[in-house]
Each structure stands twice: as structure tokens, then as C-alpha cells.
Design goal:
The protein has one domain. The termini are far apart. With 136 residues, it is mostly helical. The longest helix is centred in the last third of the chain and has 25 residues. It contains 5 helices and no strands. Helix 3 runs antiparallel to helix 4.
Length: 136
């Protein structure tokens, strides 16, 4: 074989061997789910810790962090297809709806009280997911 063909063949084969599907292993995907779930749970806890001393801006920022971390969690669950998120997704949608119904005329105490049951449901569903996904 001519030297340049050997080099070209080695380059092509080396490139093929070095290629991957870009998909994480099941273990890596599960670890990402657990990490994203921990972030989501932390953001829910921050939202739940909103108090009368909090501002509406802090409340909205906490909700935005919950929404962002839920999106990241859903994306990671999509990769780790064996993990089911249906109950958490329903609980999150209920929370999102409850937050959306908070009026600008409400006090922060009234806002917290109106979303508290939905937050508790999300916390319970996220804990069930953590157990089901075998997260530490």
C-alpha cells in the first residue's frame, strides 16, 4: 500500500474509532438526572422559603429558577428514558398554574399561601422521583 493511502486509512479509521454517538451512557444520564433533580429541589426549597420579608421580585426570581431547573430536569430525563417524570410534571404544572394566578394586587403573604399546597405537592413528587431514580 502506498504511504499516503496508509496515512489516509489510519486517519479515517482513527476518526471512526474516536467517534461516539454523543449520547451519554445510562449511568451518566442517570447521574445527570440526579444532579438536575437536586438543583430543582433546591430551587423549590428556595421558593418555599419565600417569606413576608421577601419582595415580589425575589418571589418571581425564585419561580424563574424553578422553571429553568425543571426544564433542565425534563431534558435529562428525556435522555435517561427509563426514568418516569409524569407525576412530577403534573405537580409542576399545577404549581406553575398557581403562581400564574397570583395577582399583582396580592401581598407576598397571600401569594405564598396561595401556592403553598402546590409547592408541597411538587416537593413530594420530586422526592418520589429521587427515590425512583435511585438518587443519593
Amino acid at each position: 500500500m502506498k504511504p499516503y493511502l496508509k496515512a489516509l486509512t489510519a486517519l479515517v479509521l482513527g476518526g471512526l474509532v474516536g467517534c461516539s454517538t454523543g449520547q451519554p451512557s445510562l449511568e451518566e444520564a442517570q447521574a445527570q438526572v440526579c444532579q438536575n433533580l437536586a438543583t430543582f429541589q433546591q430551587n423549590i426549597a428556595t421558593l418555599a422559603a419565600t417569606s413576608q420579608n421577601s419582595t415580589v421580585g425575589q418571589f418571581k426570581e425564585a419561580q424563574a429558577n424553578v422553571a429553568r431547573s425543571f426544564t433542565e430536569l425534563k431534558e435529562s430525563v428525556g435522555i435517561a428514558r427509563s426514568i418516569k417524570i409524569d407525576e412530577l410534571e403534573q405537580a409542576y404544572q399545577d404549581l406553575d398554574r398557581a403562581v400564574g394566578q397570583v395577582s399583582n394586587d396580592q401581598t407576598i403573604q397571600e401569594a405564598i399561601a396561595s401556592v403553598q399546597p402546590a409547592m408541597q405537592n411538587v416537593q413530594a413528587a420530586s422526592e418520589q422521583l429521587r427515590t425512583g431514580a435511585a438518587c443519593q
